[in-house]
Give the backbone structure.
Amino acid sequence: MAYLNADVDGASLTPLHWIGILAATVTGIAHVVLGVQFGGVWLVLFPLATLGFGAGVTAVIAGYRRRLVYALGIPFTAGQIVLWWVLNPVPPIPTRDAIDKVAQVVLIAVLAVLLYRES
């Protein structure tokens, strides 16, 4: 049974990893803020998305099954974009949503490149 090593594997993190970590952090924070603003069921669902992004960041920093994290992170993040598109009247795109969606697109691109590099 594999276990999560509590040590940070920072030496193996490239600038591309850090861009992905930043993008995941931005979208995670956006989900907490939006969940609080909207309230109701969103107060539960949005922080759950934040936990998903946080778990991915934690696993990558710890060096735990990174390739799997990249592979799961792409559909997880893409699903966020699709759900947002379906549930919101667009255009116009509010600035707060645009920041979140740009971070998510960057994250998907980073994850795809990292996944390709490690194949």
User: Anything to note?
Assistant: The mean pLDDT is 89. Residues 14-117 form one domain. The two ends are 23 Å apart (CA to CA).
